[in-house]
Amino acid sequence: MILVSVMYPAGPRFDMDYYLGHHMPLVRERWSPMGLHEAKVVRGVGTPDGKPAPFQVMVLLTWDSADAFAKAAAQHGPEIFGDIPKFTDAEAAVQINELPEASA
Amino acid sequence: MILVSVMYPAGPRFDMDYYLGHHMPLVRERWSPMGLHEAKVVRGVGTPDGKPAPFQVMVLLTWDSADAFAKAAAQHGPEIFGDIPKFTDAEAAVQINELPEASA
């Protein structure tokens, strides 16, 4: 299992209604049959010391494998990534992560 | 439920053996009885286009509530945060996140 983190920095516009109502359902519909296990959306509300959150929205995508993610991105990337400008001008920081522990 | 994300940027030293073998067990021992549900550690391996991952390690802490996290941080913060210099010189980006969806 791997986890792909997509992190949208604070600042630029972000249409949460479109994101939750259209974009994420599209992501789950296209990618769940291709090895996407879970897509957890979180919204930044602040730091522990009361400052603004650096990232306004993050999504944590758990996949069977890096290979499954690569194939899914290749097959549906144009549709899914092409949808991003409809809800934000932010440039997401995306990274692939290993899970070094058994889940705990 | 809330999710606290702790993200260690790439660059500075990070002793993964100490982190997994000592620090995370300490976190779970102190905070699980105080409302910590899950602590998922991930290690950045790169970006989809083959660049280095911006964050070398992230931990995703799921809590009952922001209040539970605040109380746990107040009660055990000196011990837990005081342990951080033993495994890294990186300054973590920490933020509190809401979960705008039911889990999907």
UniProtKB/TrEMBL annotation, chains A, B:
Q: Which domain of life is it from?
A: Bacteria
Classification via InterPro entries: Dimeric_a/b-barrel, EthD_dom
Under the heading Gene3D superfamilies, the entry gives: 3.30.70.100
Name of this protein = Ethyl tert-butyl ether degradation protein EthD
- Record organism: Methylobacterium cerastii
Q: What is the lineage of its organism?
A: Bacteria, Pseudomonadati, Pseudomonadota, Alphaproteobacteria, Hyphomicrobiales
